[in-house]
């Protein structure tokens, strides 16, 4: 493989394996200075194309302005672990688990799946204890990783907390809360339709299509100075004001990032706080986080509520525990149980559609994914393989950071979802 | 005062007082979104001009790419405090101290000086305990503030640690360590001349002169994409390779930021670590820091060793304690006492010159300021009023963050240095 072939434009041809594309193997950004062909720089079409993205997912703040989600100044509350000998046995047992990837015939081991999925970090909590934890590629226990669209679930959780506390009326039209979007497609949607992404918007989010609206949106959102002659919207919130309608609100689930940014605006407007400040106050500080997290911001300092979060693996484990235990962590209640119960009860499988082959029959509720099946799995998902996977049937929380070469999660679901179920089965059988 | 008069270009006319220019009074960045005339954005000529800079000094990461200086994942080691009633009495006593500003006749109280100096945060440690701590403007205990050129002292301390440990030969020519600068003015300088800023370089750092080299340097250093047709050096280290000589190395102290970036390159080259990684490993992690710090980076990810640090007030107090106690904090030795002894013994008052009226007879050594006088004060200084002031004669460490309207510290020294001495005298008299 030559370096030329690592260019995003030709990445299709022969993607490097997880081991080959390990940032330490590639030598990205090593040396003072690194060799010219090992330096990763702007623009995002460079730094966020495979295999460079395998380094960049741990280093977004080095490319972009960001806002902190503070953990505060106190001591973190360490996660619980089994004794080391037991931890080692559990790791061996889980690594050896096998499953059949969706649409495949040959079995795959859990450990093989970690490489198939370009895993950067994986953490499994069972009955409140960390029973499995491994790091790969650019990630370390004290590092942060891009959460991508898992950010949406953070935004959705904060919104649902405000709903349950009576501070946000989810039946209200968005225009009653944010009059600035009165003339956009959002104006006539309800807050709940935004939370569940059943708005009728003209918005294409096909990451593989270079003309998709998502890229226009990115131009509005870029914190870099706008190019000369740029006449488009400046910042996330100006973009939202000119989104056009398409279809009817409430008819169907359409996965569109702009809903999350609309929700970010809504919760900031009703709480008087930025999404970062809310996340710090309601979650990062009280949950005993061991690292600050951060969110990228647009040129006006607005955090990217649809995808800007970077955080530590264990801290997203804490977030998963809060979902599993309905607001309680370390014996402390952070928000009413009703918040998670409402999220679980929401969404509509009839509206969910078939865009996600592995999830047909599931639901999308308050920006969380409710998986089909009896286990009652609730998940956060982000492109390139990010997930928080909460399986109450096994009292399990699984967090995975990854840098899968392609963005689309349906490509990584086949080697992921059955692997997660294999772990869940194993834990239930112990 | 109209908002128009707060523009940097006319700030001379009638600078707002500390109270008037308090970011909360100005309403910068308040609201979702803030009103148009309250939004602070790029470029730095906007966000870093008074009075906007009073907000921006606490929010640099929201404008610029940054690299973390990690505190690690453990519990911070809290600073020691006297009992609250004693703390309150101490605060009253210190607030009431009076002194005569340099060149003035009328006395000023310590508390008045806080406003005269546009103080954002001030921390005083005496015999290892925090006896005074106040926050103003944009700063909070859990916030971070731009350290500006105090960054240089961090870089110098790390370099001196490597010298004492035998990993860096301070007598070696720079070209022996970083051959890339062989043809620049740095090539023929010794490491020690760089550390003490006695290099002979053509470099103007007059912040008031729009044609000064510092601004060209800023263009090289900017992480934003270069303007079309830009043909200058890209990044800190490319800039260093084309610095021209002027005068003779070793003859005189000339305060030039590029020396610090050269030193950053040197210590990265010999240690194999970025300045941020070194600062984390040698200082932030072992000193029990309560916050991560960060440094801004250029377009190639090189931390700005000459001015890029932002940190918490108390964490710079910890750094001051390490200087006071020659490498020991909380009973733990982080580096040999020889490091501070060497810094204290270095520099040459004959070379120091008279550019700093309040400091004539002082020295500059390993990027620390050694003040004239019997107290043996050693200090870090940064534009707009940043200082770590270590007075061993009073077992005192004082850290001040500020956002004085003008950059130049000689303008703020008259209401600062005699104020610091008044506190020192008071503490010695107790």
Automatic annotation (TrEMBL), chains A, B:
Name of this chain's protein: Beta-lactamase-related domain-containing protein
InterPro entries membership: Beta-lactam-related, Beta-lactam/transpept-like, Diverse_Enzym_Activities
TM stretches of this protein: none
Signal peptide: none
Gene3D superfamilies: DD-peptidase/beta-lactamase superfamily (3.40.710.10)
Superkingdom of origin: Bacteria
Taxonomic lineage from the root: Bacteria, Pseudomonadati, Pseudomonadota, Alphaproteobacteria, Hyphomicrobiales
Pfam family for this entry, one: Beta-lactamase
Species assigned in the record: Hansschlegelia beijingensis
Span of domain Beta-lactamase-related: 122-403
PANTHER family noted in UniProt: BETA-LACTAMASE-RELATED (PTHR43283), BETA-LACTAMASE-RELATED DOMAIN-CONTAINING PROTEIN (PTHR43283:SF7)
């Amino acid at each position: 493989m030559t370096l030329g072939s690592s260019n995003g434009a030709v990445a299709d041809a022969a993607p490097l394996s997880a081991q080959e594309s390990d940032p330490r193997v590639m030598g990205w950004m090593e040396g003072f200075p690194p060799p010219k062909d090992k330096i990763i720089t702007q623009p995002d079409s460079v730094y966020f194309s495979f295999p460079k993205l395998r380094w960049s997912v741990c280093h977004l703040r080095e490319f972009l302005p960001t806002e902190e989600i503070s953990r505060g100044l106190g001591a973190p509350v360490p996660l619980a672990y089994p004794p080391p000998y037991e931890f080692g046995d559990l790791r061996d047992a889980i690594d050896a688990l096998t499953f059949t990837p969706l649409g495949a015939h040959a079995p795959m081991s859990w450990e093989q799946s970690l490489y198939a999925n370009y895993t950067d970090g994986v953490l499994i909590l069972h009955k409140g204890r960390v029973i499995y934890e491994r790091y790969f590629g650019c990630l370390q226990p004290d590092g942060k990783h891009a959460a991508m669209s898992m950010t949406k679930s953070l935004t959705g959780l904060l919104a649902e907390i405000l709903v349950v506390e009576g501070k946000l009326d989810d039946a209200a039209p968005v225009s009653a809360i944010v009059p600035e979007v009165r003339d956009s497609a959002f104006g006539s949607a309800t807050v709940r339709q935004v939370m569940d992404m059943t708005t009728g918007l003209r918005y294409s989010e096909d990451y593989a299509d270079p003309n998709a609206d998502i890229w226009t949106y990115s131009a509005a959102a870029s914190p870099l100075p706008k190019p000369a002659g740029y006449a488009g919207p400046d910042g996330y919130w100006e973009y939202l004001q000119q989104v056009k309608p398409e279809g009817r609100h409430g008819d169907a689930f359409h996965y569109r990032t702009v809903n999350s940014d609309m929700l970010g605006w809504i919760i900031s407007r009703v709480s008087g706080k930025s999404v970062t400040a809310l996340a710090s106050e309601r979650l990062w500080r009280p949950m005993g986080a061991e690292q600050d997290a951060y969110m990228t911001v647009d040129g006006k300092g607005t955090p990217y509520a649809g995808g800007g979060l970077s955080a530590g693996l264990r801290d997203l484990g804490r977030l998963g525990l809060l979902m599993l235990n309905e607001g309680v962590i370390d014996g402390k209640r952070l928000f009413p149980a009703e918040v998670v119960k409402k999220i679980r009860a929401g969404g509509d499988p009839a509206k969910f559609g078939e865009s996600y082959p592995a999830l047909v029959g599931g639901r999308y509720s308050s920006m969380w994914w409710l998986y089909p099946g009896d286990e009652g799995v609730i998940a956060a998902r982000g492109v390139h393989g990010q997930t928080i996977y909460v399986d109450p049937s096994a009292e399990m929380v699984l967090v995975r950071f990854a840098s899968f070469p392609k963005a689309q999660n349906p490509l990584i679901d086949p080697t992921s979802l059955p692997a997660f179920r294999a772990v869940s089965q194993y834990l239930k059988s112990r």
